[in-house]
Amino acid sequence: MAIPLSNLSIAFQELGRDVDVALRTQIGDAARLGEQKRLCLQFYGDLHQHSHLLGPEDYQSVQQSLDNMLTALEQATTSSIDSPDAPPPLLGGTIADGRPGCPRIGIKPEDLVSLTSGRVTHQQIADLYGCSARTIRRRLVEYGISQPGPPVYTQQEQPDGSVIREYTPGVSADLSNLSDDELDRKMLDMYEQFPSFGRRMIDGYLLHLGERVPRQRIIDSYHRVIGPTTATFGTRRIQRRVYSVPGPNSLWHHDGQHGAKVLFV
């Protein structure tokens, strides 16, 4: 009779330690926390099966502890270890101005300035507000954040009285007006400071300088100033190791990143 009771006590203590470690190190990990919940429920069944070994008070105490474990694990599953330090921004909403038609979408100029600072498309911003990309474009022009683009077409009257309509090729009005020479000078200055920069790092650095340049122009400028390089913009062949083993699972290769650890003596 003492052996099953001792085993039950040891199993309960080990379960408590495992749950405590999981609650401290695996917050938000639904898979691992779910495994701990499964073990708690399994112990719940074992406890009910051997309930005759415990007194009423001990049985109720263990049962209450299991309930607390399950509650804590359930809360940890839906929690995050990185709690936000500020409330989420409120985007969108409508403004009723009393005029006929659909109500106006509430879009703040400062929010648009922040959202358009990177390579976010108008459609992606529109998805946040639940409107169309044309609405975002109109607000950018209305608030003076973006310059209006050229007209879609212009009409020119010919000497014979006919009218010819000339269409303007579509371009983004948010792009920088850097010439190729100015872009090449910036590329050269950047390469002298950061020779290991690739296309994405160059793109980000130009955005940091306030210059929004198409990717193809960045690649063309890099080729003009520095020359083509397969290591940065081209495909790289992966050098794979070749192993010769007698059978499956005869050799395991594990990269534990031990070189990143700092040893203190």
Can you put this structure into words, describing what you see?
This protein has nine helices and four strands. With 265 residues, the chain is mainly alpha-helical. The strands form two sheets. A two-stranded antiparallel ribbon has the order 1-2. Strands 3-4 form a two-stranded antiparallel ribbon. β1 and β2 form a beta hairpin. α1 packs parallel to α3 and α2 (30-49) packs antiparallel against α3.
Query: What share of the residues does DSSP label as strand, in percent?
Result: 5-15%
Largest sheet: number of strands, sense, barrel closure: 2 strands, antiparallel
Based on helices, strands and strand pairing, what is the structural class? mainly alpha
Low-confidence stretches: none
The whole-angstrom Rg is 32 Å
- Overall geometry: elongated
Distance between the termini: 51 Å
Number of strands: 4
Mean pLDDT: 79
Quaternary class = single chain
Strands of the largest sheet, in order across it?
A: 1-2
Helix content: 40-55%
Number of helices: 9
Order of helices and strands: HHHEEHHHEEHHH
Set out the fold topology.
Elements: H1 2-25, H2 30-49, H3 56-77, E1 94-95, E2 104-105, H4 109-115, H5 122-129, H6 133-142, E3 153-157, E4 163-167, H7 180-193, H8 199-208, H9 215-225
Antiparallel strand pairs: 1-2, 3-4
Helix pairs in contact: 1-2, 1-3, 2-3, 5-6, 7-9
